[in-house]
Amino acid sequence: MFSFLDMFLPPFTMLFVVMDPIGNMPIFMSLTESPRPGYRLLMAKRSVFIGFFVMLFFAYAGEAFLNLLGISMPAFRIAGGIMLLIVALRMIFVEEQKEKAAGEVTENPYANDVAVFPLAVPLIAGPGSIASIILLMSERHGQWGQQLYVISALILVSLITYVLFRLSNYFARVLGQTVNTVISKLLGIILGAMAAQFVIDGVRSLIP
Is 193 part of a structural domain of the chain? Predict the structure, then answer.
């Protein structure tokens, strides 16, 4: 029992912190506001599914893939930070034309698809998450049993993320439109700060 906890808890704790399902839930709620029925549920399924497989890919091939492309982790952090900053600015400053959006409800469930960007990447599978899983797997290189604990931790954190994203529909109904708008703006500021920190960390890593 203790052996299992010793091997499972460290990777689970690290991935839970860096993937931050609790912190991402209100951001997901803000980004998936839509008059289309079932849109939020669809985005929850797709974003977690895509984010999980992005993380799984980097778990086994991430370091080699980035090296092949000549991309360093600091550069990856900076790029992810810039992308998040663009999303944050849109959340804060861009006026959503809700009446127009309501009139443009279509049969296409993938219109205005935010599942890949920015939800799956870089919110779920962000630079910090990818760097963490590469580190966790490289520390256990050649130890398939140990690596299985890392993948199990990734699966559990992904399931927690999906459950919390599903619950965001409930919170959206309870809080109401005005509170949701205020939360969206505040979260845009927080997301902007997170983006700036990604860039700062990336630049700092490049300085000898």
Answer: yes
Residue 30: its pLDDT value, please?
A: 85
Query: Do residues 42 and 116 lie in contact, with contact meaning Cβ atoms separated by under 8 Å?
Result: no
Range of the domain at 43: 2-104+114-206
Determine contact, residues 25/186, Cβ cutoff 8 Å: no
pLDDT of res. 102: 39
Helix %, strand %, coil % of the chain (to 5): 85, 0, 15
On whether residue 63 sits in a domain, the answer given is yes
Distance CA(128)–CA(122), nearest Å, equals 9
Say what the alpha-carbon torsion angle 176, 182, 187, 188 is, to the nearest 10 degrees. Answer: 120
Mean pLDDT in residue range 81-94: 80
Domain count of the fold of the chain? 1
Supply the DSSP string of 77-116, one letter for each residue. HHHHHHHHHHHHHHHHHPPP-HHHHHHT--S-TTTT--II
- In this prediction the pTM is 0.74
Q: Is residue 109 part of a domain?
A: no
- C-beta separation of 123 from 44 below 8 A: no
Looking at the domain assignment, is residue 22 inside a domain?
A: yes
pLDDT > 90 in the chain, percent: 34
